[in-house]
Design goal:
Layout: H1 4-20, H2 48-61, H3 66-78, H4 82-95, H5 101-112, H6 116-128, H7 133-146, H8 150-159, H9 166-179, H10 183-195, H11 199-211, H12 215-225, H13 230-238, H14 245-254, H15 266-274, H16 286-295, H17 323-328, E1 337-345, H18 351-360, H19 363-366, E2 372-376, E3 379-387, H20 390-401, E4 408-412, E5 418-420
Antiparallel strand pairs: 1-3, 1-4, 2-3, 2-5
Helix pairs in contact: 1-2, 2-3, 3-4, 3-5, 4-5, 5-6, 5-7, 6-7, 7-8, 7-9, 8-9, 9-10, 9-11, 9-14, 10-11, 11-12, 12-13
Length: 424
């Protein structure tokens, strides 16, 4: 946990290179592998990087192998790359949309980004599909911790102690117990891992001591685990005393502090969701609010000059252009955005017709809404949006489901090109 930020920097480049090595190989004829649990690990202990490489070799020849997609997603999470993980889980959901594992995985990827509310949307969907706390308690517990709901978090962690993520659940439970003042319980929880000299648990022990106010003990533990690290970690540890319990969870588990530019959950998140913003509908009329949002271009997000009519966000009118001109002139979206994916395929030219067919199922819901396309090597996604947050996307997805229009949430990466359908 203490080395998460460094781990992220090292891992992202490696994961990107590995993912690119098997991009664009999707084949619609592959059969679904009917697995109902997380992939079984190799006989010998294997690191996350090795597991990711192994799963990617499988995907190179069988890109719709459900077990390999889930396994690659979990390995990417361990390496700190939530964006890569979300991509694998999204593909797994396309292969087997009734399995709870992709939704649980998306929840895990979302909570690692610090978005507890968005993660709970995915976990709720996974639970409806049959997921249990044994399967997802380690990750859902973290979402609860980030919201200050520590009793629920600890119940989830305990439920996951006999599952596939038992070690991480034990470490997160220890941190949660320390946050709520149970230092003895936290150290007892860590004891089995410390006895087998689990490196991550040695670092977690330092966090437990720091969260319990034992600065000297934390310093000794950090120096034992990472000699010479105290000058860098000392200021980090010193800030714990200024944080509320939800903020402590974000800082200890994810390295996210208030004011870092990333969401941390807790009271600020709850207030943001519950308080109507100027010009928006009250919470009791959420669907009308979302409908207005989707039909109104966000301020300052019109098409860039010279973009040949390709919008950077929905609602911007554009003259029809040829498909060739649109590949040539897509403009990246400035920041991550939340969308609903309606369909996908290897050929973006087929998506306008799919949008017409989908629209015909409910003119009331989709009339006046534009479709958007995100293209990747070998694949194009048909989208509607963007939405303010995961809850808004879920609300609209549930409404689409009432007229048998299936969709799932997808988050575009910062700078990813998204283009508006110019004709349908």
């Amino acid at each position: 946990m203490l080395s998460l930020m460094v781990q992220n920097i090292v891992s992202r480049g490696r994961i990107a290179a590995l993912v690119l090595s098997c991009a664009g190989l999707a084949s619609a004829g592959e059969s679904v592998i009917a697995q109902v649990s997380y992939p079984i690990a190799a006989t010998q202990p294997e690191g996350a990087s090795s597991r990711l490489s192994r799963y990617l070799r499988v995907l190179a020849s069988s890109p719709r192998d459900f077990q390999a997609l889930i396994g690659a997603g979990r390995a990417a999470l361990e390496l700190g790359d939530s964006q890569a993980a979300a991509g694998f889980f999204g593909r797994a959901d396309e292969v087997w949309p009734t399995s709870p594992l992709p939704q649980a995985g998306m929840g895990a990827a979302t909570v690692i980004e610090g978005d507890a509310d968005g993660a709970l949307v995915y976990f709720a969907r996974a639970q409806r599909l049959g997921a249990t706390p044994l399967m997802m308690g380690s990750d859902r517990g973290l979402a609860y911790d980030l919201l200050g709901r520590h009793a629920e978090a600890q119940a989830d962690y305990r439920a996951a102690l006999s599952g596939a993520q038992s070690d991480e659940a034990r470490r997160r439970l220890a941190v949660s117990l320390a946050i709520t003042g149970d230092k003895e319980g936290a150290l007892t929880t860590l004891s089995p891992l410390l006895m087998r000299r689990d490196p991550a648990s040695v670092r977690t022990r330092a966090l437990v001591l720091a969260l319990s106010g034992d600065t000297n003990g934390a310093r000794a533990a950090i120096e034992a685990a990472m000699p010479g690290a105290w000058p860098q970690m000392g200021p980090f540890i010193a800030r714990f005393g200024t944080l509320n319990s939800a903020q402590k969870a974000a800082a200890a588990d994810l390295g996210i502090f208030p004011g870092s530019g990333q969401p941390v959950g807790g009271a600020a998140t709850i207030a943001r969701v519950a308080t109507p913003q100027p010009g928006r509908a009250a919470p009791g009329d959420r669907l009308a609010d979302i409908d207005t949002l989707l039909r109104t271009p966000p301020p300052g997000e019109q098409p860039a000059a010279g973009s040949a009519g390709i919008a950077t966000a929905p609602g911007a009118a554009a003259p029809p252009v040829s498909a060739a001109a649109a590949a040539a002139s897509m403009t990246p979206v400035a920041r991550k955005r939340v969308w609903l994916q309606l369909a996908s395929g290897p050929n973006s030219a087929a998506l306008p017709e799919q949008m017409r067919r989908i629209r015909s199922r409910s003119e009331d819901l989709l009339n006046g809404l534009s479709g958007f396309i995100a293209e990747e090597p070998g694949k194009a996604r048909l989208l509607v949006g963007p939405f303010r947050n995961a809850k808004d996307a879920e609300t609209f997805a549930e409404d689409l489901a009432t007229v048998s229009i299936n969709s799932f949430m997808w988050v575009s990466a910062e700078g990813q090109p998204i283009r508006k359908l110019t004709s349908e």
